[in-house]
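[stage:ingest] chain + small molecule (zinc ion)
[stage:ingest] validated
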Amino acid sequence: MISAIPQSDHALEETPLQRYESIVKGGRLVIPFLGELRGDLGIREGRIVAIAEEIPASAGESVIDARGMMVFPGAVDSHYHVGIYRPHSEDAESESRSSLVGGVTALISYFRTGQNYLGTTGPYREIFPRVLALSDGHFYTDYAYHLAIMDSVQLDEIEMLVDDFGIASFKFYMFYKGLNLASDSTAGSAYTMAENYDLGHLYRMMERITAIAAQRRTAGRISLSLHCENPEIIRVFIEEVKRHGPGGLAGYSRSRPPLSERLSIHEAGVLADATGCPLNLLHLSSREALQAAMEIRTRYPQLDIVCETTLHHLALTCDTAGGIKGKVNPPLRTRADAEFLWQGIHSGRVDTVASDHACCQELDKDEDDLWRSLPGFGGSALLYPVLLSEGWHKRGIPPVRLAELAAANPARHFGLYPRKGTIAIGADADLALVDPGKTQRVHAAALHSAQEYSPFEGMELTGWPVATILRGQVQYKDGEVVGGKIGRYLKRPLPGE
Ligand SMILES: [Zn+2]
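[stage:predict] done
[stage:export] tokens:
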């Protein structure tokens, strides 16, 4: 028999009153892999230290009123491009500020040597400290970096990057080897500033990453992210579209067809099978791409393969994004492709949703010249609003599943869980308070980004964050950024303790 532990009134009297720096009170908590429940949160030193049905307001130095709100874990936007087209520190400031609007409290940005970004090449031992220095003190959210390994010198640095800098994820762009074929610019190496950027280089990279991932198994996942488009297919389709059309974004989609994603995913699958490398298949944009991802998962069941799609591939199509500002790689597709991706979310085949945020200003988008316009645009400010509006309200995907896609899964797959991406005792108090019924049209001006336009402009969305909290600090409230540049670099794996 279990006997109750005797408790005297005296013992209760001696228990000191719990004090919290702040309390989030009256909200509906959306806890990944658990569900929704009514509860209050007690926060101390930036962490969640109490979850209870009721925490008295008197126990907190400040109280955040969450009545009528849903309390989500702060989103972890795991696909981002800080500094790709603009000075790094400036971009970090404006774009991480914009992310707060979407309920994002941590972002993981891609960085590489070559053209764009810092426009330089060399060993990361010299370059990455510069990136960290340009980042320090410039972020409104916490941040981490994925690094693209561009040459053989950097191949030898992978282990050092894992151990000394806490880099847990790397990147390869499968279409870069053909940049010299696909454009009339000079040699492809002028863009990558690297020789032999090909499948042989990818094979070596997978070997290195696999070996280190196996050695560091207890220290969290170490993986390779892939941009899957095949350059030879792109080359011939661009030629055809330039000659015969169609124009606009439909032409752009035709010029980089889903077939190019499919082929590239299968090439990656063969090499991953030969090496055992854990993969992240980025921004799957089409039915063919997601099907190919499922095919390699089925064919190589021992492999660790994470599937990502983006907000824009879910919510926009080549007909709705308004002019060529919606140019992005891989391109926006058809309504049927987007619906197939939503089904992938419904059925659990898609693991993460990210923004692929790349602030690309109007001057870099030439309405009269699709081919000269730079690819990419921002979307981080719409992460929760698009998922809640289009996913939950319109398609019935439960909010808890959306919290898994936007917060818990990216945190798990990229070495940040459970300090980030969930609501739990000991987790950072990173939260998005969402008004589930708030309806608002997207206006670029309200997104607090340096990008003057949004391909999502005018879209009516229901379910907006009204407050975004980073480590207990209110950073964004009622449409205004109220916090400071307190974002910290997240060296991975982030310790749970
Ligand atoms: Zn990207």
